[in-house]
Amino acid sequence: MTAPYSMDLRERALARKAAGETHRQIAEALRIAPSCLSKWSRRARETGSAGPAQVGGYKPRTLSGEIAEWLRQRIKAGPFTLRGLTAELAEQGVKTQPRAVWVFVHDEGLSFKKGPAGRGADAA
Questions:
Q1: pLDDT tens across 53-104, in order?
Q2: Is 71 exposed, middle or buried (0-12, 13-18, 19+ CB in 10 A)?
Q3: What tens digit of pLDDT does each residue of 15-40 get?
Q4: Most buried pick, 29, 57, 82, 109, via CB within 10 A?
């Protein structure tokens, strides 16, 4: 992902706009898209600053709190598959993906791996 334009460039563009230049003239002189200036102007009006919004960030996990506790109990109760757990969560109104369930199970250390194929239960 590319970095946002600098505040210096944004301020110079908005100063030129305040001086009466058109968006296209400013865009050509500063080598930016005219739409950038429109967006910066709107952002400055709405928030008081033309600074960039947050790039990236933290998204809280869907499988946390009460749902996580239910999952822990369900996993300890008996055999499961990731798709099966996903379907059980969907029945409870929790929209998620098997990948999210896998991440939860893995992070909790609750996964179970079978041994190599063909190995009996008593083989070591």
A1: 888 887 778 888 899 999 999 988 888 889 999 999 999 999 999 999 999 9
A2: buried
A3: 999 999 999 999 999 999 999 999 99
A4: 82
Query: What distance lies between CA 42 and its chain's CA centroid?
Result: 25
d(CA 72, CA 45): 49
Angle at 107 between CA 102 and CA 113, to 5 degrees: 60
pTM: 0.49
Residues whose CB falls within 8 Å of the CB of residue 24, separated by 6 or more in sequence, listed in order = 34
Residue ranges per domain, the chain? 7-47, 66-108
Which of these, 116, 115, 109, 105, lies nearest to 81 by C-alpha position?
A: 105
